[in-house]
Amino acid sequence: MLSMEEMAWFQAFLIIFVLFSACFAEERALYLVMMEGDSVAFPSNTSPSHEDGRTLDPHNVSKSHAKRLVESHNQLLQSTLETGSYSKLYSFKHIVNGFAVHTTPSQVLSVSLHAYIICEKMEQKINTNHGNCNMVLQAEKLKCAPGVNLVERDRGARLMTTYTPKFLGLRKGVWTQEGGDRNAGEGIVIGFVDTGINPTHPSFAYHPHLNPFTSKLSRFSGACETGPRFPLSSCNGKIISARFFSAGAQAIATLNSSVDFLSPFDAVGHGSHVASTAAGNAGVPVVVNGFFYGLASGMAPRAQIAIYKAIYPTVGTLTDVVSAIDQAIADGVDILTLSIGPDEPPEDSPTFLNIFDIAMLFARRAGVFVVQAAGNQGPGPSSVVSYSPWAVGAAASSTDRNFPGSLILGNGQKVGGVGLSGPSFGGGLFLYKLVLATDAVKRNGTFPRTPPYIEECQYPEALDPNVVKHSIVICIFSAGFLNGSSTLTAIIDTAETLGFMGFVLVANPNYGDFIAEPLPFDISGILIPTVASAQVISNYYEQKTYRDGKGLVTRFTARAAIEEGRIACFKDQVPTVSRFSSRGPDFIDVKRNPADVLKPDILAPGHQVWAAWSPISALEPILMGYNFGLLSGTSMATPHVAGIAALLKQYNPSWTPSMIASAMATTASKYDNDGDLIKAEGSSIGSLYPSTPFDFGSGLLSPKRALHPGLVFSSEYEDYVGFLCSLPDIDPAMIRNATGEWCNYSLGHPANLNVPSITISSLIGSQLVQRTVKNVESKAETYLCSVLPPNGTVVNLYPPWFTIAPQETQDLYIQFNVTEAIGEFSFGEIILTGSLNHVVRIPLSILPVSVF
What we know:
This protein has 852 residues and is of the alpha/beta class. Residues 58-114 form the Inhibitor I9 domain.
């Protein structure tokens, strides 16, 4: 028998054994590690910023320094972690000094426990959370290693046109000033970190008579990596470079060789869609299912494309994304497009100081304009995933084009819906038997009596072919669609197998309205996303359907037809902020404490955008076989901003990224086509509310006005570091670890960063904010200053007017005083009206906390 003391020791041993066993059983983890010391691009004896608009010259790098960095990474790992317990995936050496490592959980514990004993810096004790124990211990071991500044767990990465050039006024605006679409974006390289590219698509075809190479591109140094479906000829002059990054993906997942191609080829379609929206060739016919939808053009159709594939159908990692960013900047891209982003905010660091955002900071330091998707988690507040002021966060809007469909009932009623399909046979002149799927289920079938079988039209074997053939069948949006197991593709397969004349997918009162986007159906079909419209159909159907005492149908007399759904219609009140588009306020940490930065930055078309696609369509079976896709998302808004940035860069070669961003912001419009404030879509279908800068940033992108903004606000690398050093309750050591810079310079308050907006998340009493503007026009101009103050404040602007000569700067001082503590953000704007008709708008987002 064990004594009580021995039993207590034995129980304690069992607890520790269980915890340690849990740690050993944990899956592998990826870490991103940043080191002390200079990267190749930014040696200590050089200027840290590119203020003349030039990007990093990839030829002016030290190969010996790069080699030394790689060797130092290897030596650190060899001296810190046990052999066999890790594998290094990448060395980051171009714009940041660091590496990515994949841990092997066996042997991690013993090494990490040793670190626990000897490392004085370690604050985190053994984490008894089963999901984190291994990773915390390994991360802490690395944190304690000499020369390591920052260790961060890989949070994963996810994916976030025919008409939009006209909608944004490019054909009669910017393109005209650049000599037409065949010169728009000439000599500018846009880099895309995404799912790759479909090189055979006509949007990326090479046209010899357009002379794709210019002398300016001699400073670009890319490469054409080959592999499955991507021969060397894929880099044809339009596609000037293509690389792929897969070490992170291969480390944490078993890739599917049928779709996860280890080459720059795009098996998803997303990367092709994004690249063609920004820089696709002009005048490409969009034909889907034999129907002509118009001619597609990118925003900058003469820009050239550099591809950095880092997301795969099976998985995406920040490890691959950061390595792709590092290489893109080393190659010398002018614009970097990130329609992808982390799965979640950083766990234990300010949002501005995670490695992904720091990589974007160093891209900005290299003179590259960076635009990223704001996120698709709207319409809730603080849902943005674009946090930092050095990257432009793009929100998504509608355009005035939509594709309405309708269902005609036998009683003459017409019910509106969505669906890119042709009409049922006869174009609405002939009506067909209308059948509810539930009433067509085989009575003696051996299948499960679950929604996918009995009402969602997922399985043809569940339906009586004699009832549904040549009929229009009503399928119901039920549990399978809600949890993602049921698909429109399965409905189409069922319809084709059993010979439906068409299908109707209707909302279910038990689940409410659903979100419907127009998708191309190769058979006649329509989506009815609102319960109210579904009820109209149901009432008519029941009136015309005869049943016996058991409720079984004895005779179908309801009739219906599906009208043409592929013809575009145009509406007046646009744009609206799309429902899915993520909203501000920006936040500084995982607790979503608000930050003094306006996010999103800008609004651009992101709803129902036609652009190039990949026929493999690995993640969207309904688009399989198509060369074009009609997609929505902030992923679609982002390349609009990238393409416009390329046009501005071509027209104003000396402009820095912050000047380009400023020109876009101060000339953007916050009004719709009716002259009213832009509305934003709410959580329910059809709901709209007056939007704020937390919905649309500075407003809708206006390329023509952005060419000549009058004044710009410029911020450089040192200013961004000063911004970080001004953050409340920030540990200067964290900034030092992330950027390599000491906090020798502070802005006093983060709201003093010289950006074209002012956000104060906690205004107590009064605060003085400074801005500096520069005249980028060729003539002197006098500006009159006016203010629309946010509620609860009085705002005074000094000077009230000023005259500014070309290339000169003018300091502005804005005094905010609280008159009433209202406990929520309020909005206003500063307007600088020039004598030569330039108008500069500066949105204000202020939270008045107390009068004193």
